[in-house]
Amino acid sequence: xxxxxxxxxxxxxxxxxxxxxxxxxxxxxxxxxxxxxxxxxxxxxxxxxxxxxxxxxxxxxxxxxxxxxxxxxxxxxxxxxxxxxxxxxxxxxxxxxxxxxxxxxxxxxxxxxxxxxxxxxxxxxxxxxxxxxxxxxxxxxxxxxxxxxxxxxxxxxxxxxxxxxxxxxxxxxxxxxxxxxxxxxxxxxxxxxxxxx
Length: 197
Prior knowledge:
This protein is mainly α. The protein is 74% helix and 0% strand. The protein has helices spanning 2-16, 31-40, 42-68, 74-100, 106-132, 147-170, 172-187.
């Protein structure tokens, strides 16, 4: 299941690159106009960076989670499937964000972008809560697994992403900035007490 998930993450990250488009030759008749056309596409670069780093950190935490989880069952597989479903939507919301952030429709694109990340974080929380309930799916002994710490941090990230979705209605760039802060927060998750996994 972890190998299959890794494949989905890799495909999603690859699809993000299709959002980066080179200017058409008609829009860039000289080096100067090409440079200006490239600079004009800055929303695509920001959306790509946020999406790439978020998917990477989600994959990293997914991998860390599997370092302390030994078994699987049907409900856990469905949670994992839901996570992959949501991650697969990231390229679409990235495209919306890049295309509409400078238009009057920026509110909806920003809200969807941040709400999706909140849903992904919530799914990771559900996977963690389910697998650690009474040490259901953890490797034994599991005393050195930071069950409560990981749960608390995932609750925080889910809540902050949801708040960022609300803030995006009023100030889209504030939502994006919040998303970047949460990428840093999620990158610092530690699942194991004695070693980095």
